[in-house]
Amino acid sequence: xxxxxxxxxxxxxxxxxxxxxxxxxxxxxxxxxxxxxxxxxxxxxxxxxxxxxxxxxxxxxxxxxxxxxxxxxxxxxxxxxxxxxxxxxxxxxxxxxxxxxxxxxxxxxxxxxxxxxxxxxxxxxxxxxxxxxxxxxxxxxxxxxxxxxxxxxxxxxxxxxxxxxxxxxxxxxxxxxxxxxxxxxxxxxxxxxxxxxxxxxxxxxxxxxxxxxxxxxxxxxxxxxxxxxxxxxxxxxxxxxxxxxxxxxxxxxxxxxxxxxxxxxxxxxxxxxxxxxxxxxxxxxxxxxxxxxxxxxxxxxxxxxxxxxxxxxxxxxxxxxxxxxxxxxxxxxxxxxxxxxxxxxxxxxxxxxxxxxxxxxxxxxxxxxxxxxxxxxxxxxxxxxxxxxxxxxxxxxxxxxxxxxxxxxxxxxxxxxxxxxxxxxxxxxxxxxxxxxxxxxxxxxxxxxxxxxxxxxxxxxxxxxxxxxxxxxxxxxxxx
Length: 480
Known about the structure:
This protein is α/β, with parallel strands linked by helices. The protein folds into 2 domains: 2-99, Alpha-Beta Plaits (2-Layer Sandwich), CATH 3.30.70; 108-407, Rossmann fold. 28% of the residues lie in helices and 19% in strands. It has helices at 2-16, 47-54, 79-86, 132-135, 145-149, 152-156, 205-214, 245-257, 274-285, 374-391, 397-407, 427-432, 447-450, 455-471, and strands at residues 32-41, 57-63, 68-73, 92-102, 108-113, 166-171, 190-191, 230-235, 242-244, 262-265, 289-293, 311-318, 324-325, 337-340, 358-361, 367-371. Strands 6, 7, 8, 10, 11, 12, 13 and 14 form an 8-stranded mixed beta sheet that branches. A 5-stranded antiparallel beta sheet has the order 2-3-1-4-9. It is globular, with a radius of gyration of 23 Å.
């Protein structure tokens, strides 16, 4: 009975949903793409394709990995009649609009030119970066305070990163010709917006995110990145920072099929999507560690994909050395961890002396960008996860997640809380921490349950799991 009810409800949603499509077609500025829908199938059934054609729907894209079809309603077709036809098919689980995904407002600030930061002969090393913008920048004078406050200089003494570790930046693309990104960029990603093999960045956000993770460190130029690893770009947002659930889901599944270790998602929506859920579950089952922005609205409203239990939801902090919760950062029981995101303290969009902004690479030659938000916090977690994976090549995604949570600096209310999650990441402590392993497989991450566990209990749980597996006693985990 669930299928007809969900499809009938869709009719009401469609009738009252406000959508707006500019002259560019799919390039939209509203809540959903007009006339486009995502159909989730229960299984492979070629007869559904015939049904779609008879119902007046045009197949736009097949996402066979997750059993989803992107369709477009023909102009003369009434969607209410289409739903009536489709709700009788046992092969269809759901139909939902192709929702819009946008970058949070206020992420990116101004760019700065680097003529006064010409490349010099390297004198330092990864442990003591000689990258000029690490120590200071012309706007705020803070430089990369965000890396200092999480202990990166000490962490680099333990691990600098491995190119074997791959992080997918699912975003606006990456400007791979930037001198601070050339060495870390790896081809293989895709541009889902323009449907080609060149995921170049025509907005700037993805390049900014990529630089936080993997800008070349110790080259006497520009900024320092957290890890010498490989970056793959999946372009799912256009030149205005807007995209669709269909493209986002495609970017996630494509990255998972490439075998990436970590997927960075500095984007999201407040609207739940079954298609996005399927894509996240697909990547999770493939062994990917998914890291996503909690959102910048200062609300407890769940933000997706961050709020899915398989994903590490990252909140923002700012300041050196105190590093407190950023007022704009979303909060709630679904928050996993926090990391530096900065804060424009007078909220005028202009970096000024004494403020805390995140400086990273831009999408133009010899250019760098300042910005704030959970979009910046997220790649800090992805970068640290990449260093942990480099340090422990055999570590699973769940083991890396355990280290991040266990070693986080507890802030706010003692223990896990709704503002900092398990705490703010601590790079040096994370790399010193041995793996927390268990016998018998990873199991499924249950965020609502794990939120109740303190670090000491986590170790005890792992130990009990090991013992019970060895002696053959089943360990029952009850979902709370």
